[in-house]
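HUMAN: Ready with one sample?

ASSISTANT:
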Amino acid sequence: MSRVYLSPPDVGADDRAALNRAFDSGWIAPLGPEVDAFEGELAAVSGRRQGVALSSGTAALHLGLILAGVQPGDSVAVQSLTFAATANAVKYMGAQPVFIDSEPASWNMDPDLLAAAFDLHDIKAVITVDLYGQCADYARIVAVCEERGAVLIEDAAEAIGATYRGAPAGSFGTMAALSFNGNKIITTSGGGALVTDHEADAVKARFLATQARDPAPHYEHSELGFNYRMSNLLAALGRSQLADLARRVERRRQINSTYRRALGEIPGVEFMPVLDDRSSTFWLTALTIDPDAAGTDRETIRLALESHNIEARPVWKPMHLQPFYSDAPAVGGSVSRRLFDLGLCLPSGSNLADADQQRIIEIVAETTAQSSG
């Protein structure tokens, strides 16, 4: 039986046609009209004035920290429950991440702990994460950052298409990072973007992402640059995917709703909460399994799915528990540790077949029933 992946690329004939259009235009090398158009469309969907198409979401975070003026030795507050790239970008700068625990209500950065972190550390910038497609509590987090004079960068890699109090993911803070990796809601195979309201920041980001080449007939460089720009071909794919964003997000929401209806009454199973003032993309459907109530644990269920060639994955291992970051300061940590111990992500791709989802539901239900019986 073919493998069911957690969140595989969802591509089709329209995407192939977009790539062929870009190929036939002759704009094969990096940059071109598809990049320019994609940047404008990304800015629009994120509620921003400017977009910069890049090679990855990590590149967007890195450039965002440069634009924020972060220097070696500075402290940057980072949500602990996240993928490593969020924290790694801070290390690229020679800066020190300060990991902030999650709030139980949303699994995102706890605004109260963030405020406490400013009393313990001289924090220059803050990176939030819109975890699994749900925005953080920006009303409170923005207020903390403004009061303390810190630059806020939104990591919306998992959340394009989500909203917080009616405003789109990507619209919060000074700038935001998007990701178009192969497992994301839309993909450019590999890629990302930085979105902002500040034209000067967008101009600077494009300059730095193109090896910081100064205006000259020869190659002139007065500062360090990076090879971070997106190619015209991949931007064409991104535009095709972005045009289909509404369907992709709605499909993931349907998948999440089906999981909740089918599994939500099992003792010990609790889904990631979604608050009333926001709409999630449900990039991944995440839940926790309390072994005392369910009679089984996360790993038993994951292995049961794996035995049927179905990929499931624990929720992110918090950064403050990662070996590489064992010496980094952390504020709190028990909430994200518990989520990692109990949490599981189920296949959630927008191209997940109904029959495959039903098979997943049956395996989870049978595993919990056998254990409790």
Q: What stands out?
A: The chain has a mean pLDDT of 97.
